[in-house]
Amino acid sequence: MNGFPVSLKGFSLYMNALQEIGTVDIELPNIQFMTDTITGSGIGGELEVPIAGLTKSMTMKIKKRAVNKQFTTLIAPIIHQLAFRGKIQMADPGSAIGKVKERTIRIMAKVMPKSKNLGKAETAKAMDTEAEFEVISIRIFVDEIENLHVDKLNNIFAVDGVNYLDEDGFL
């Protein structure tokens, strides 16, 4: 699809693919590679080299306006399977009449709870509850095409279908 993303129209969060938690805000993980520093003869100083496919700890934050039973369930000390589904509004400058198009986005994650801030109780105000999770695996699909798959327990770090941890392939 030609065009460029304008904005995210919103997400709904589902637990175990069926139970809707509702509309949330999420802070996706910052993917940082593990590194090794190389020094020695023939190198002018130090070189910090990222290790292909090996990542540092990844965390995800989920924010909701108020506490509810479904969202509070996420603090149970187990591995949760979450699915975020939403739409991205696209501007199509090639369209003669300036059509607006949409792309679907789906993010699937296996997470473990690290912390839960229940928020604040104040009359006529949002509670702004927040939970933080350790990300075990994450998959991102745009228009149902998988763009990223990181699974720390199964040695998968795939970008656009290439697994950089596949011993028989890349390494």
Structure description:
This protein is an all-beta fold. It contains 1 helix and 12 strands. The strands form 2 sheets. Strands 1, 2, 3, 6, 7, 8, 9, 10, 11 and 12 form a 10-stranded antiparallel sheet that branches. It is globular. The mean pLDDT is 86.
Key terms:
single chain, 171 residues, mainly beta, ten-stranded antiparallel β-sheet, two-stranded antiparallel ribbon, 12 strands, 57% strand, globular
Q: Rounded to an integer, what's the Rg over CA atoms?
A: 20 Å
Write down the overall mean pLDDT: 86
Total number of strands: 12
Distance between the termini: 33 Å
The general outline is: globular
How helix-rich are the residues, as a percent range?
under 10%
Query: Would you tell me the structural class of the helices and strands?
Result: mainly beta
Contiguous helical run count: 1
Sheet with most strands? 10 strands, antiparallel
Please provide the ordered H/E string of secondary-structure elements: EEEEEEHEEEEEE
Stretches where pLDDT is under 50 for at least 5 consecutive residues are none
Strand content: over 45%
Task: Please give a quick description of this structure.
The chain is mainly β. The protein has one helix at 69-73, and strands at residues 4-15, 19-23, 25-27, 33-38, 47-55, 59-64, 80-91, 100-117, 129-142, 145-151, 156-159, 162-163.
Please specify the SSE layout and strand pairing.
Blueprint: E1 4-15, E2 19-23, E3 25-27, E4 33-38, E5 47-55, E6 59-64, H1 69-73, E7 80-91, E8 100-117, E9 129-142, E10 145-151, E11 156-159, E12 162-163
Antiparallel strand pairs: 1-2, 1-7, 3-6, 4-5, 6-9, 7-8, 8-9, 9-10, 10-11, 11-12
